[in-house]
Each structure stands twice: as structure tokens, then as C-alpha cells.
Design goal:
7 strands, alpha+beta, disordered C terminus
């Protein structure tokens, strides 16, 4: 089986509905498990927070299949709206995106914060990349990753910048 190539591009206002749909599908299982799934609210929360200037859209074969946002906070970048269509999860796409974003934060010497739903499998991905528990409540787990120092040839551009075509 030949897998389609995927790429990232800067989000636009026009992407909001496609991304809201990916969010609804990707989060449904975790939200249902927590008794918090609402067909309208899951999409509206994305629409209310949509900031295309902070967001990369993931496309496969010209179709929006995910997104990730990195928002500047006072003392950290906030990793937000990191969703992939379920059929693409587990293929290394999320890992590649996360690695690129964390390399950028490391070069800038910035910590990265995020929150994930209690019991979400995504937490393991974040912990594998150096995120640690900051705090949690009944619904959310807040994680933080301190910047890692850059040494030797890793100090310059990595060549792994988001935006190019990739195969999973």
C-alpha cells in the first residue's frame, strides 16, 4: 500500500470548519469517556479560539486532516489545537510535527506548555518528548517542557522545518 504524502501550510480563516470537524472526530472518544462530548460544543470551542496566524494545517492529498497551533504566552509557548484525523494517528505524523515545534522552542530558549484531557493517549507522546506534569484537575492535565540546550551542529537550522512534503 502506498501512503499519501502529507504537508503543512499556514492556516487561513477558510480552514476553520474543516479543522473543527477534525477536532470533533479526533476528540470524540476521550470526551465521551469523560462524559463531556457535545456535538455542537466540540466544534464551537475551536471556532471561538481559531487563530490562523498561530496555526499550521496538516493536509494529505489536498484534504485537511489535522492542525497544530503554537501561541506565544508570557513565559512560554502554548501548544494548542493539536489534532489529527484518527486514521492518521500512529503513523509518526504527530511525532514529526511535535519534534519540529520543540526544536524551534529549544532554539529560542522557550518552555512549552499544553493541556491534554485526563486519560488521553496523547499524553504518552508528550511525555516521550520531555513534557512533565505541572498540574491537573478532574478533566485536564497540564504539562510543561523546559527548553533543551543546543550543542554542536544541532545549533543551526535542523532542516526539519514544518512545511515540506513528507511521507509517513
Amino acid at each position: 500500500m502506498v501512503e499519501a504524502e502529507w504537508r503543512t501550510r499556514q492556516a487561513t480563516e477558510a480552514d476553520v470548519e474543516a479543522v473543527a470537524e477534525v477536532r470533533a472526530v479526533a476528540m470524540r472518544g476521550d470526551l465521551e469517556r469523560l462524559g463531556r462530548y457535545d456535538e455542537h460544543r466540540v466544534r464551537q470551542r475551536l471556532r471561538d479560539a481559531w487563530a490562523p496566524g498561530n496555526t499550521l494545517v496538516v493536509e494529505e492529498g489536498g484534504t485537511v486532516v489535522g492542525c497544530v497551533a503554537l501561541r506565544q504566552g508570557e513565559d512560554a509557548h502554548w501548544l494548542e489545537h493539536f489534532y489529527l484525523a484518527p486514521r492518521l494517528q500512529g503513523r509518526g505524523i504527530g511525532t514529526a510535527l511535535l519534534r519540529d515545534l520543540l526544536e524551534t522552542a529549544d532554539r529560542e530558549g522557550r518552555r512549552v506548555r499544553l493541556n491534554v484531557l485526563q486519560g488521553s493517549a496523547a499524553r504518552r507522546l508528550y511525555e516521550r518528548h520531555g513534557f512533565t506534569l505541572e498540574e491537573e484537575d478532574a478533566v485536564d492535565v497540564f504539562l510543561v517542557r523546559e527548553p533543551r540546550p543546543q550543542y554542536g551542529w544541532f545549533e543551526g537550522e535542523s532542516g526539519l522545518r514544518a512545511g515540506g512534503l513528507r511521507s509517513s
